[in-house]
Amino acid sequence: MRRQPFRAAEGGHLIDRSEPLRFDFDGHRQEGYRGDSLASGLLAAGVRIVARSFKYHRPRGVWGFGSEEPGAMVATGVREEVRPNLKATEIELADGLMAFGQNAWPSVAWDLGAAVGMAGNVLPAGFYYKTFMWPPRWWLALYEPVLRRMAGFGPAPSAPDGAFYAKRRMHADVLVAGGGPAGVAAALAAARAGAKVVLADENVRFGGGLLRAPGEIGESDGLAWIDAAIGELEAMANVRLLRRATVTGYYDHNLLLVAERAGGDAAPGTPETRLWFVRAREAVIAAGAHERPLLFAGNDRPGVMSASAAGGYAHAYGVLAGQRAVIAGNNDSIYAVARLLRGAGVSIAAVADARAESGARDLPCRPGRTVERALGSRRVRGALLRRTDGRAGDRSERIACDLVAVAGGWSPAVHLHTQARGSLSYDEERGLVLPDRPGGANRSAGAAAGRFDLDGCLAEGWAAGVAAAAASGHERPAGEPPRSPDRVAGDAPVFWRIGAGKQFVDLQYDVTAADVELAAREGYRSVEHVKRYTALGMGTDQGKTSGMAGLVLLSEAIGRPVARTGTTTFRPPYTPVPMAAMAAGLIGEGRDALRRTAADDWHEARGAVFTAAGLWRRPSYYPREGMDEEEAISAEVREVRAGVGIVDVGTLGKVDVQGRDAAAFLDLVYANRISTLKAGRGRYGLMLREDGRVFDDGVVMRLGENHFYLTTTTAQHHAAMQHMEFLLQTVWPELEVYATDVSEHWFAAALAGPGSRALLGEVAPGLDVSDEAFPMMAVRAATVAGLSALVFRMSYSGELSYEIAAPADHGLALWTRLLTAGREHGLTPYGTEAMGVMRIEKGHVTHAEADGRTTPDDLGLGRMVNAGRRSIGRRSLDLPALCRKGRQQLVGLAVIDPEARIPPGCQVAERDDMRPAAPLGHVTSFCYSPTLGRAIALALVENGRSRIGQTVYVASPVTGLAMAAEIVPPVFYDAEGTRLRG
Amino acid sequence: MLLIPCPFCGDRDETEFAYGGDAGTERPADPGAATDEAWTDYLCFHDNPKGPHREFWFHRDGCRRWLTVERDTHTHELGAVRLSRP
Amino acid sequence: MAAMQRYSIFSLLRGALSGHRGWQPAWRAPEPKSSYDVVIVGGGGHGLATAYYLARNHGIANVAVLERGWIGGGNTGRNTTIVRSNYLLPENQRFYEHSLKLWEGLSRDLNYNVMFSPRGVINVFHTDAQRDYWIRRHNGMRYAGIDAELLTRSDLARLVPALDLSPAIRHPIVGGVIQPRGGVARHDAVAWGYARAADALGVDIIQDCEVTGIDIQAGRVTGLQTSRGPIGAGRVGLAVAGHSSRLVEMAGIRLPIETHLLTATVSEPVKPFMDKVVSVAAAHVYVSQTDKGEVLIGGTLDGYNSWSQRGSPARLEDILSAACEYFPRVSRLRQLRHWAGVMDMSMDGSPIIARLPVEGLAMTGGWCYGGFKATPASGWCLAWTLANDAPHALNAPFSLERFRTGAVLDENGAGPVAWGH
Q1: How far is C235 from chain A (nearest CA, A)?
Q2: Among A79-93, A624-638, C357-371, whose mean pLDDT is lowest?
Q3: Buried b (16+ CB within 10 A) or exposed e, A452-486
Q4: Do residues A295 and A377 touch, judged by C-beta distance below 8 A?
Q5: Those residues with Cβ within 8 angstroms of residue C17's Cβ, 6 or more apart along the chain or in another chain
Q6: Which residues contact C396 (CB under 8 A, 6 or more apart)?
Q7: Percentage of residues of chain C with pLDDT beyond 70
Q8: Which of A81, A49, A5, A58 is nearest to A509 (CA)?
Q9: A696-731 per-position pLDDT tens digit
Q10: Is B1 close to C314, i.e. CB distance below 8 A?
């Protein structure tokens, strides 16, 4: 047998016969030409069954020509490389392409799942709502797994998509969606007017409907005119042409998304899909129209297809969709299709025109007739024709054929128009849902607006281009719109079905006319109910071909005019968009940059184990030979408490606040009073949210009368900064204050431990480090290790401690010089774990305690609130629920068994049985304290301060651990603070 | 995706901004004198119209100015955009 | 009225023999009467459930449900269908656990398969702080009598092979927790099942009926003005989450609620590869695979007041990139459609199921992210509140007064920022 038995001897403007390609479908080697789609290649090879349907596993062939294809769903690639749910009509043939029909085992030709189809009678729309309720456990164990396996569609991939995807953003005056005659005319008009134009079309070649059927523009062939116009546009600097590019979504403020696919012959490095985000001042929607099906029994059989598609395969690819065709329809297009097919070598068995009066002498016409039933099971073998007026006594005519080409009229592609919130109207006479009032700066033109004659499309497209250019500030272009002798309106009366039997509305989800009627009978009468009850239009073709038929059927079933039934919402995207394209650039560090402090290189070289703190990574601890994690952390703690340690605190937020009203402003921002600070001194500062809950804390240093330097926590740095800017710009704009985020400008490290003074004295010889000259909570400018720095004396660890801040560029130098100088002093670098242990020992709170629900009093900080009644959050503290008795309060917990270790996420309970009961509270922070020789924790416990001395249980039911602990005050270590004043 | 005309920076995507909520809610000048009801009105009971709304936006990744923006919450059409503190 | 036609495999087989011509409407389409004992505004899951429980639990069947469009057309049909009770605060735990228990018997209760599928809801975490939080939350659930378990990385590898557990990703996953009884249900079926069961008990479900005013005399609600004429009512329950502010405003009441958009999206259907519901803390994304085979992905709010029902592509980029990052194989699929729900975001992230300061008027709303899973208990509690003119212990904490006293239920600790929850 010939390799391409259904390829005509000549013709096909999209293919290059000099370049044959080999491809593989369902394990069989096939041959096509460069320029073929997979669909045309399969048709040429005589492959009719391309996929299996969703529910009944009925054979599915090629129905359409492009993105409207409902049935011919395939997967490409093998095993983990598989790419499911592609439309055969949209895949460009490439040498070596591997493709498979979907939803079938072992193959689409012989699918065991088809057995389900035999039980089809028991499985009407929504059958699953009516059964599978008993016995209760069987739903999860049996019914659902079976349903899930039968459903699905393409194979699930098991590996990530390794291909390259990209995004681009651009602004345009006019975006034209669709490169058929209307779109090209619009682009030409707007571009000649000087507008910056983007013209996007989903096909490999501009031309729209002219790709499928010849037409005449001016004095020449339509496609030749398109090519010339495209040539002109291509040469203009203000125009960008996007081929294989579908406008998929229309969003707020005229943002349109365009998905541009790589072609079969794309250069290496071309993204698989490039997603364009186009901000267009104006849009022209020239997206064309979709041919509708006719409803008759067996209208889903392979070999039944859209008439314009059948013509299109002959015209564009030189492929015969059959050898002997019945063409049926309700509009004039059937005659042109019949002549096109005949010219390509298809024998025309009959042309059935549903209208009584039409006819053509050169064709075997059957006026007033349509298809009642397609014969054959795995493929069409014939058709029964019958009168449409239902006259009694009429007998069906049986005609043998292998192609039934159906033309049910056209549905304008109003998707983008409605995505832009445009309204729709229903033209009863023409049977068309049409764009009405636009919802954004856009206009629809051509078939998308219900103009089906070539001349009308050109005129409307041109006018839309002129108007869009004018609306975006351009003069009227020179020249006149192109004309065409084709002025046949192509309207079709609404005519849908005849006869009985399984008439498919939605080929993908196997929704039949009877399903729609059943839904209506059962009370699902809204068009959205029908869609949801039957799944009509929810497939990957998104109802492009099925929507109108479903709407008319429903309207008939409920006896309501179509105009009042209304359409379903067309949700974006217009055609499916690769997830990987939406994700492009936003994976990993593209989403969240990894932030490193100035001393990060040193930590890395030292072998630190890092931990995440927001976007930052910080040393968690520095591993030691022969020690496990807890031992290494404990060693760091012990060495700080006994000697001196250094920790990188470069991640803290730092804010410089200046201005005449700076002190007054900080009294409003902090719950405690800042204005009483003397220059050169600092204070712990507590910020509340306006609802009275603790927001953040840090240290505020007064550098001068009107100059402050404050720190925030790492976590709340951005929120705190935004909060202060909000207050300054919207609540108290009269205050003269300048708050500047200087976090990026400063690096900081803390020296902690009884040995820190000696070390600081050595590296800062100009600085008097004596307790009298440099007391607790003082700040000094000094030269430290040869670098200018600010030195704060404060303590987080509970030891004598200094925080040294240097310009970020000097951060690494400061750190390494301190480490070098500290060698003699036994300086120990420590990480966040040791820092955390020491702060728990000291009872300092973090965001584990200040979790957005706790008040200052809950945390034992109530006495700090003294700034005044106007300060942020102060008023809320007087609300009844914030000062009621019985709130949870911060306490310490000392585990009694010294060998026990607290697991994460513990609750605090009265008993150790871990049986359901109201817990007393929960652990907020926990550690093993080498200083105390036991595990300790901070916890929020109901009436906690009155329970000090009680024994409770720290428990984690999910880990099965519970241990006794004593409630103690939250400061475990040096409660008097003698060490930090040392 | 909104396109917000920042008075300093020009037309910018919404992703550069942080939303700041209803601009019609005024903080009591003397919170200490406000009743619980007046205070919690300010805290929790804000305008939530379907239609024109005056609201705050912060040009977080730009000039860091707070803007007072008129926007229709149904159509997302923008009206006047001005600096909250001129 | 006629007895409800029972659904079962036998009725389906009988239907097959008769070409399925014998199926009765699942609910009637009655003309509204001049008055009812109770009128429920809102024909979503919550309103229909309220009517059902009023009739079934309290014997109040002279009830109408008024729906502006078609039943189940609001957030009932726009959510990500997750059902769980894995909350932090005891008040929320109790309420949502009650709801979960109602879910567990719902199909048989309603004789309508709502396809509740307790396949397990997993949360994964990345840092020590997140670990402590999630385990604490699940320990709290155990103390509240709710199922909860800890998952190691190898548990995760076994339960969710699609999840990327590599230590090399930007925020490596260190562990997870699961509520095994959590799962998903078929969202539309919940509205339809409640409607059919309520209708069978005598409730009038009136679609295409928009409420335009609330009649109040001497501080008491007496009826409603509607697009189909005035309807008298002894009591009125509002179940219109997404639009609560607007309805309640008709009674001169302001709510601590703002309206925000929440985007969700599905891929094309593929064969099953993931049966758990998985939520990823670092990316604020949750992913499941529907029975149809679609990968269903939800995330966080668009972040500004909106009633537009059209989400921003910026949010889509967020949630899809997160899905591709943590479930790498998903990157081979294509996004089929996306939509946005209009959400009642309350000022503390928890709902309001309470009497309002007009006698005879009560509401359920402010659902934030929690509305779908709450459907049965929300209706159950509002029915109780309407029948007894007092809240049940389960919904007493969800009062309106809490925003006046400060006794808010701030599940996330985000403060009074509607879009922060």
Answers
A1: 28
A2: A79-93
A3: bbbbbbbbbbbbbbbbbbbbbebeebeeebbbbeb
A4: no
A5: none
A6: none
A7: 100
A8: A58
A9: 999 999 999 999 999 999 999 999 999 999 999 999
A10: yes
pLDDT in tens, A398-423: 999 999 999 999 999 999 999 999 99
CA A418 vs CA A535, C127, C312: distances in Å: 21, 44, 16
Strand partners, C403: none
The average pLDDT across A294-317 equals 96
The b/e string for A869-886 (b: 16+ C-beta within 10 A; e otherwise) is ebbbbbbbbebebbeeee
Q: Peptide bond before A268: cis, by omega within 30 degrees of 0?
A: no
Residue pairs between chains A and C whose CB atoms are closer than 8 Å: 327
CA A56 – CA C269 distance, rounded (Å):
16
For residue B46, which residues of chain C lie inside 8 Å, CB to CB?
256, 258, 418
Per-residue pLDDT band at A489 (split at 50, 70, 90) = low
Dihedral of alpha carbons A87, A91, A95, A96, sign: negative
Reported confidence tier of residue C1, pLDDT bands at 50, 70, 90: very low
Q: With contact defined as beta carbons under 8 Å apart, do A935 and A900 qualify?
A: yes
CA distance C353 to C401: 11
Report CB contact under 8 Å: A571, C339. yes
Residue C16 tokens, joined: 């097959």
pLDDT grade, residue A479 (50/70/90)?
confident
Q: Residue C2's pLDDT band (boundaries 50, 70, 90)?
A: low
**Residues A322, A328, A334, A338: is their CA dihedral positive or negative?**
positive
Asked if residue A117 has pLDDT above 80, the reply is: no
Binary contact (C117, A140; C-beta < 8 A): yes
Residue with tokens 């712990």: A684
What is the pLDDT averaged over residues C244-268?
96
Q: Give CA–CA dist A744/A741, Å, rounded.
A: 8
Predicted interface score ipTM higher than 0.90: yes
Q: What is the mean pLDDT of chain C?
A: 96
Q: Do the Cβ atoms of C418 and B21 come within 8 Å?
A: yes
Give the pLDDT score at A496: 64
Rounded to a whole number of angstroms, the distance between the first and last alpha carbons of chain A is 99
Instruction: Name the strand (E) or helix (H) holding A816.
Output: helix A811-822
CA–CA distance, A716 with A847 (Å, rounded to integer): 9
A vs B: CB pairs below 8 A: 63
Which residues on chain A are in Cβ contact (under 8 Å) with B75?
421
Spatial distance between the Cα atoms of A418 and A411, rounded to a whole number of angstroms: 14
Beta pairing class for A273-285 and A442-444: parallel
CA distance A783 to chain B (A): 34
Q: How far apart are CA C352 and CA B26, in angstroms?
A: 25
Among the listed ranges A186-195, A476-485, A929-938, A961-970, which one has the minimum average pLDDT value? A476-485
The one-letter amino acid code at A85 reads N
